[in-house]
């Protein structure tokens, strides 16, 4: 299963890229995130592997995230013509996901965030969920992006007044 979602954010691209890559900010916009800790490497750097834990209702999911592309490597003083790429692979029980984010300057104080998600499922349960509810994955991705936009533009924190 593969899909792409995009959202426009009313902030400069450099600021958006820095916020997305900042582990201290993730719990404020990444709904359900319990833990995101590097196992090896430095967060936000190419090749870093992290343990990631999400809690969604009664369901707890643990996965390993590996950063597969950060381009440019430094998220400061990025020329306006350069598209920022931030790609990760996430492996959990019965699933593999590639997350490919492109952060594009869309004008003064405007950023376009394009997020491509690709999933593969090993286990019969996850394959069944993907078959019966493919829209739930897209809906969750869109929710994460909308939460990020609200956090980046207005300082809203998903941990306060959860929807």
From TrEMBL:
Q: Which Pfam families is this protein grouped with?
A: Polyketide_cyc2
Please state what the protein is called: Polyketide cyclase/dehydrase/lipid transport protein
Identify the taxonomic lineage of the organism of origin.
Bacteria, Bacillati, Actinomycetota, Actinomycetes, Micrococcales
